[in-house]
Design a protein that fits this description.
The protein is globular, with a radius of gyration of 23 Å. The chain has seven helices and 24 strands. The chain is an alpha+beta fold. It has helices at residues 19-24, 123-134, 163-175, 235-245, 302-312, 359-374, 423-436, and strands at 4-9, 26-30, 34-47, 50-63, 66-78, 81-92, 97-104, 107-115, 144-145, 154-160, 189-195, 202-210, 214-227, 267-269, 272-274, 286-287, 291-293, 316-324, 329-337, 341-350, 380-382, 387-392, 397-404, 408-416. The longest helix is centred in the last third of the chain and has 16 residues, at 359-374. It is 18% helix and 41% strand. The strands form four sheets. It has an eleven-stranded antiparallel beta sheet, with helices on both faces. Strands 16-17-18-19-20-24-23-22-21 form a nine-stranded mixed beta sheet, sandwiched between helices.
């Protein structure tokens, strides 16, 4: 596999560098040789099929087709179900074998074997990200060198086109069972690139973006490049995984799949795999252009709520109801729009709670994500007040709320595009959507200053 990554640069001499000289000096590195990096990712995706959010930190090393993920700290949430994981993975990229072990939901899982699908995230995707930085169109998006203080890194800021980022994250999200269609807009991808003060080597890439269905932040710190270290998957890893493959009782029934394996979109849980619903369950199965209900169960609150919304809103864009019986959660996602605005609410009812699935944990996870994403304090409420409101006037006035009760977890967002729109008006739109769903008094927009 011939892959090149933009990772380092030669010295620019004693003359003070410019943003352009730093960027143009970036050299290419052959990923066929040894590389090592630290990666930190926060991402959230919401669409008609549900929600997925992930916070991850890990070290990655590789050489040629061999890829090693380790020292991970991973938190994953899927439509009301959340879990923390500590995993290690060895893989042979481009359709080879993959091996994973870790601690998942408090259970120690020994080495398991799967295969890497063609769409699995790998070094070529980091190449796309790095090259989108290096090859950014300076006529369209200016490189800006931050004010430099002696003893600090050089920092270049820019806005980059989203195509390469979207393609790379499509593979990453497919690998992690997200949709793969991140829907980025070019103006939404902002990048910050750090260079070593002395060597002018590229040290870190930080990218932040927001699409129609997904928002994310990604930080890549390069630790080693162009090394001669050889990597191979340890023989004891392969042996242990093959023994487990022939033992149906191994690892408490856990299994895993990556990329384009056959069998559909499988989310993992103890005892086997759960795939996409294809037949009705205890409720009514619906699959139309604007309304989808998985029919896996009937929730006495959520299902009637969805039926009322469907009947009441002529401007409904999409309505989805999902029943996660294995985590005790029912979920409705409802989006609507007008001539100059659009919005969505999510209502999750937790009827069977435990330490891994409850409204408070979902609230705190989403609060932490929004707090980091907006890089500011909420304009209303707070983390300890069971609700929080965030706002931005980028690309139109947007307001977003997250809150919870003993039984429910609620989110809502609205963006207004008319001139002079303010946060109160956006919040009133969210309140209107909740009212259509039969939920009154979620918050008081008039209380905002």
């Amino acid at each position: 596999m011939a892959v090149v990554l933009a990772l380092g640069m030669t010295s620019c001499g004693s003359k003070a560098p410019t943003a352009e000289s730093l960027m143009k000096g970036i050299q290419e590195l052959d990923a066929g040789k040894y590389y090592q990096m630290e990666v930190a990712l926060s991402a959230k995706q919401e669409n008609a099929d549900g929600s997925f959010d992930i916070d991850a930190k890990a070290k990655v090393e590789g050489a040629g087709d061999i890829f090693h993920l380790y020292d991970t700290d991973l938190s994953v949430g899927m439509s009301g179900f959340s879990m923390d994981m500590d995993i290690e993975m060895w893989a042979e990229l481009d359709g080879g074998d993959a091996y994973l072990k870790g601690n998942i939901l408090g259970q120690d899982i020994n080495w398991m074997k799967s295969s890497m699908g063609d769409s699995s995230f790998g070094p070529e995707d980091i190449e796309k990200i790095a090259n989108s930085i290096k090859d950014a169109d300076t006529e369209k998006h200016e490189f800006i060198l931050q004010k430099h203080e002696k003893g600090e890194d050089y920092i270049v800021e820019m806005v980059i086109d989203g195509d390469d980022i979207s393609d790379a994250f499509g593979d990453a999200m497919e690998t992690m069972k997200m949709d793969g269609d991140s829907g980025f807009n070019a103006e939404d991808c902002k990048a910050e690139v750090r260079f070593d003060e002395e060597t002018k080597d590229l040290k870190t890439i930080f990218i932040k973006g927001e699409g129609d269905e997904m928002s994310f932040s990604l930080e890549i710190t390069f630790l080693a490049k162009n090394g001669n270290k050889k990597l191979e998957i340890p023989k004891d890893v392969i042996k242990t995984a093959e023994e487990a493959e022939n033992n149906p009782d191994a690892n408490n029934g856990w299994s895993f799949s990556l990329g384009d394996d056959e069998g559909g979109d499988n989310h993992q849980q103890p005892g086997g795999e759960i795939g996409n619903t294809t037949t009705p369950g205890n409720g009514t199965y619906v699959d139309t252009e604007k309304y989808r209900n998985d029919g896996e169960a009937y929730d006495e609150v959520i299902d009637p709520m969805a039926e009322a919304v469907y009947a009441a809103d002529p401007n409904l864009t999409y309505l989805s109801v999902s029943h996660y019986t294995y985590t005790g959660v029912s979920r409705m996602s409802y989006s609507t729009s007008g001539d100059d605005w659009g919005g969505e609410i999510v209502v999750e009812r937790y009827y069977d709670q435990d330490e891994y699935s409850n409204p408070k944990d979902s609230y705190e996870r989403q609060y932490n994500f929004l707090h980091e994403w907006y890089e500011t304090e909420p304009v209303g409420g707070g983390k300890d007040q069971k609700f929080a409101i965030f706002a931005t006037d980028d690309y139109g006035q947007k307001a977003e709320i997250v809150c919870y009760t003993d039984e429910y977890y609620l989110t809502g967002e609205a963006r207004l595009y008319n001139d002079g729109a303010n946060v109160k008006q956006a919040l009133n739109k969210i309140n209107d959507m909740f009212a259509t769903a039969g939920i009154e008094g979620v918050f008081d927009a008039s209380a905002l200053s």
